[in-house]
Amino acid sequence: MMFRLDKRCPICGDRLILRETRKYIELMCPACMLACRMDKRNVKKYIRGNTFDWVGLIEDLYLAFRKYVPLLTKPRRVRKSNKRADVFKYVR
Ligand SMILES: [Zn+2]
Prior knowledge:
Elements: E1 2-8, E2 15-20, E3 24-29, E4 34-39, E5 47-48, E6 51-52, H1 54-68, E7 79-81, E8 86-89
Antiparallel strand pairs: 1-2, 2-3, 3-4, 4-8, 5-6, 7-8
Bound molecules: zinc ion (ZN).
Zinc ion binds at residues 9, 11-12, 14, 29, 31-32.
C-alpha cells in the first residue's frame, strides 16, 4: 500500500508519500529521500473499536516528520528517534 498525501515536505515542498511495509508505516519525501516511520507494533493505540484511525496516525507521523527531519544533516546514516517514530534518510 502506498499513496501520496496532501501534506508537504518541510524542506522541498514536495508531496509526501505514505506507505506500508511488512514492519512499518512510513511517511516519506520521494525527492529528499527522507522518511519517518513507526513500527507496526506501536500502532495499536490507533485502533478504535473496529476502525483504524489513519488520520490520527498520519497526523502524528507528520508532526514527527516536520519536527525531526529538518534536524537530519548530511552524514548518511543519521537517525533520530522520539518515542513515537524514527526519522532517517534513505541511502541511494
Ligand atoms: Zn523533500
